[in-house]
C-alpha cells in the first residue's frame, strides 16, 4: 500500500508544532516551538523536560553546516532559570544536545536552533561521543524504513537504593545557575509505518555515564511505561487518542 | 484611605481562580482550580509545585469541621503519577498539607479539597505539628492587619555540598509510587494593604526536618529571589505587571 501523503504535509515547515506534535504533548508546561523541534522547559532544573523532533528523509538532507552554529543562551528563559555556557565550563560535562544538530540539515536556522542551551543538558563526554551518538544515528537510519520518525528526548532523575535501604534521587548541579545533571537520558521513538497501518514505539534509557561501546543499543530498550512513570510524561495515552481503530501500536520490537 | 472593594469581590467564591490568582501564575503547568486554592501539579515528583490560597477574615470563619475530612487520591492525576495514602504508610513522614485545612472554614467543600493528596507532601511529623503549624497560624493572624493574604506554598529540593566539594540535590522517594520528599518547604505571602497603597511580601523557607520550637519564625525569612531561583517560579515579575505605579512592593519587612 502506498501511503497517501497529505498536500499540507509537503508544504508545512518541518519544525511547525502542528506537524511535530502529531502524537500529542507529553506535558503542557512552558511549551516552546523552534524551527526544528517543540520543547517543554523545566525552570527548576534549567533543562528541557522533553524535546520532540520529526525526522524523515528530507529533514536529514540539506545545506546546513555545523561550523556556523554556536551554543547560545535561551533569552526567552528568565535569567534566574537560564543556563549559560559558563555554567558548563570546567564542570567535566559536555553540553549534550537533546534534539541532535545532525537531524536538521534541511535548514541552517533549524540546525542553529538545536544550539540553544535550553535544548542541552550536562552529559558525560564519553557517552555523548559514543553510545549516545550511536543512538542518534540509529534514529536517523530508521527514516529509511519508516515514513516519519518522531523522536522525544529528555533527562531522567532516577532513584537508587542507598546504604540505609531507602530510595533516594541524587544528582549534581553545576555552575552558578545550578544546572541539574540528569542521572539518565531517555529517547522515545514513534515510528510511523509507510503503509499507514500503525506506529511502533521504541523507548531507550541510558545512564549519564561512560558506557562500554560494545554494548548494543538493544540493551537499553525499556518498556515505555518505565519512561512514563519516571519522567512524569505520557505518550501511549496521547497516541491512542489519535490512532484510528485499524492502526496497531507496537512497542519495542 | 478606605479601600474601594469591588462588588465582584464580594460575590465571587473564595476559591475561584480569578480571585486567588490576582497576582498571576508562578508557572503554567497542569493548573487545577479547587474550591479553596489553585495549584500546579508536578507529575514527576508526585506533589504540587505550588498551591495558592487567598485568606481573609471571612475565609477563616464558618461551619466546616475537619472531622468530616479524609485524605483522598486526586483522580484527575494519571495513576502513574498519583500519590496514594499507602505510599505514606510506614514511611515516617506525615501527609503535610500545602494549603492548610484550617484556612478554609468558610465551606466544608473548601476544607475537604485541601485533603487531596495532590495538595500534600511528605513532611517531617515534628515540623508539621510545631513550627510549620506556627507558620500557618502566622498566615491566618496576618488577616487582622491586611485586607487579603495570598499564600503560595510549595516544596523545594535544595542542593548541598558533599564530601567531594560538589553540589548535589538529594531527596528520598517513598512508597510504590515514589513520592518525592522535599528537602525544604517555602511559603510566599503576598499581603494586600487595606489602604490599597501596595503589597508586602514575606518569604519563608523551612527545612523538612525537626526544627527547635524556640527558633522564631523570622529566622526562616529569606529574600524572595532565593525562592524564585530554587523553585523555578516567578512572583515579583507577575506582581509588578499588575501593580499600579502608585503601589509599593516591599519585601520581608
Ligand atoms: Mg551530542
Ligand atoms: Mg500540616
UniProtKB/TrEMBL annotation, chains A, B:
Gene Ontology MF terms in the entry: metal ion binding; nucleic acid binding; RNA endonuclease activity; single-stranded DNA endodeoxyribonuclease activity
EC number(s) per entry: 3.1.30.-
Domain DNA/RNA non-specific endonuclease/pyrophosphatase/phosphodiesterase span(s) in chain numbering: 33-242
Gene3D superfamilies: Extracellular Endonuclease, subunit A (3.40.570.10)
Top-level taxon of the source organism: Eukaryota
SUPFAM superfamilies noted in UniProt: His-Me finger endonucleases
Active site per the UniProt annotation: 97
Top enzyme class: hydrolase
Coiled coil location: none
Pfam families the UniProt entry points to: Endonuclease_NS
Main location (coarse class): mitochondrion
The protein, known as: Endonuclease
Species of origin: Takifugu flavidus (sansaifugu)
Amino acid at each position: 500500500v502506498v501511503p497517501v501523503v497529505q498536500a499540507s504535509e509537503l508544504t508545512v515547515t518541518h519544525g511547525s508544532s502542528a506537524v511535530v506534535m502529531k502524537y500529542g504533548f507529553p506535558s503542557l508546561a512552558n511549551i516552546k516551538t523552534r524551527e526544528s523541534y517543540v520543547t517543554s522547559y523545566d525552570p527548576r532544573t534549567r533543562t528541557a523536560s522533553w524535546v520532540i523532533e520529526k525526522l524523515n528523509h528530507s529533514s536529514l538532507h540539506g545545506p546546513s553546516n555545523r561550523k556556523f552554529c554556536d551554543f547560545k543562551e535561551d533569552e526567552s528563559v528568565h535569567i534566574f532559570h537560564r543556563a549559560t555556557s559558563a555554567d558548563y565550563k570546567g564542570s567535566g560535562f559536555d553540553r549534550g544536545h537533546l534534539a541532535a544538530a545532525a537531524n536538521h540539515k534541511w535548514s541552517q536556522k533549524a540546525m542553529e536552533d538545536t544550539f540553544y542551551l535550553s535544548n542541552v543538558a550536562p552529559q558525560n563526554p564519553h557517552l555523548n561521543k559514543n553510545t549516545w551518538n550511536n543512538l542518534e544515528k540509529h534514529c536517523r537510519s530508521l527514516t529509511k524504513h519508516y515514513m516519519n520518525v518522531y523522536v522525544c528526548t529528555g533527562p531522567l532523575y532516577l532513584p537508587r537504593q542507598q546504604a540505609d535501604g531507602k530510595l533516594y534521587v541524587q544528582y549534581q548541579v553545576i555552575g552558578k545557575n545550578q544546572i541539574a545533571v540528569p542521572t539518565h537520558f531517555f529517547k522515545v521513538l514513534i515510528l510511523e509505518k509507510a503503509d499507514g497501518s500503525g506506529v511502533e514505539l521504541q523507548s531507550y534509557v541510558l545512564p549519564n555515564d561512560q558506557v562500554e561501546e560494545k554494548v548494543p543499543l538493544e540493551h537499553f530498550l525499556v518498556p515505555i511505561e518505565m519512561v512514563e512513570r519516571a519522567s512524569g510524561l505520557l505518550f501511549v495515552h496521547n497516541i491512542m487518542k489519535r490512532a484510528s481503530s485499524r492502526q496497531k501500536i507496537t512497542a519495542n520490537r
